[in-house]
Amino acid sequence: MPLDLYARKCDNNISIRCVLFQNRFGSLFDIVNKRIFASGSLSKRSQIIEHSFFKTDGGRAAAGFKGSTRDCVTRALAIAEDMPYKEAYDLINAYSKNEKTSKRRRTKSSSRTGVHRVTFDKVLTDLGWEWTSTMKVGSGCTVHVNKDELPSGRLILRLSRHMAAFIDGELHDSHDCSRNGKRCVYGYWKKPLKRAEDPGAFLDKCEPLRRLFSTPEPRAIKSEYWQAQFKGIFS
After folding, report:
1. Is 219 inside any structural domain?
2. Residue 226: enclosing H or E segment and its boundaries?
3. Do residues 45 and 17 both lie within one domain?
4. Residue 215 falls within a domain, yes or no?
5. Which among 75, 96, 121, 158 is least surrounded, fewest beta carbons within 10 Å?
């Protein structure tokens, strides 16, 4: 059967075999889709893909970082908060210094290799983001990576072993992690439309960030981004 006809049948749920094939061999099915798109067999991307995806590393390469990494948390923060990658990288590492290791948590968070949930929750809470849970015990999956099921605005989605930025109905990540719009969303953080009017009070709450401002080290976070966030506080 020609690839385009095979994909069309899967997309329209006409063939049970096609649906089972897609579920069991999702990555291979994606390769088939890409070849179809490249050949021009399908006139509209939406015939198979039900969402918009923008590929980006969040500014990692531009910041001078190289090699492979597990930086989905840092990348999602940089993209959704619209901040330089290096600032997101340093901010998360600043918070990780307050962590304590245990038998269950033997290593501290790292912007490069992974961030513990409690630490990232603290970062976003201090930055004024609001958390919404989309799954409860026994409820099953109710929300997916789909623009029709998520609110507008700048979001950070919590997925299975992954975090991703989702901005006004469009997925922003280094790869399409949506599983064709069927991946379950456990919850999401939403950026507030406006910061607290008193940036000084906000900074007092965000102790790791305040420490980064006060440190005499050359790499202290005193960039144009943070200067704009806390205008009038720092000279």
Report:
1. no
2. helix 224-229
3. yes
4. no
5. 121
Half-sphere exposure in the Cβ direction for 173 (13 Å, CA): 24
CATH code, domain carrying 152: 3.90.70
- For residue 30, the model assigns a pLDDT of 46
Exposed/middle/buried for 94, CB within 10 Å: 0-12, 13-18, 19+? buried
* Average pLDDT of the chain to the nearest whole number: 75
Same domain, 40 and 84: no
Digit-coded pLDDT (tens) for 146-189: 999 999 999 999 999 999 999 999 999 999 999 999 999 999 99
Does residue 75 fall inside a structural domain?
yes
Q: Which domain holds residue 7?
A: 3-49
Cα separation values, 130 from 29, 63, 74, 151, 154, Å = 36, 28, 18, 13, 11
Q: Are residues 184 and 136 in the same domain?
A: yes
Quick check: helix, strand or coil at residue 167? strand
This prediction's pTM:
0.69
Supply the pLDDT for residue 17: 33
> How many independent structural domains does the chain possess?
2
Q: What is the pLDDT of residues 45-70, one digit of tens each?
A: 433 445 699 999 999 999 999 988 88
- The rounded distance, in Å, linking the Cα atoms of 148 and 150 is 6
User: Are residues 39 and 141 both part of a single domain?
Assistant: no
Q: What is the DSSP-derived secondary structure letter of residue 46?
A: G
- Write the pLDDT tens digit of every residue in 130-140: 999 999 888 88
Whether 153 and 83 map to the same domain: the answer is yes
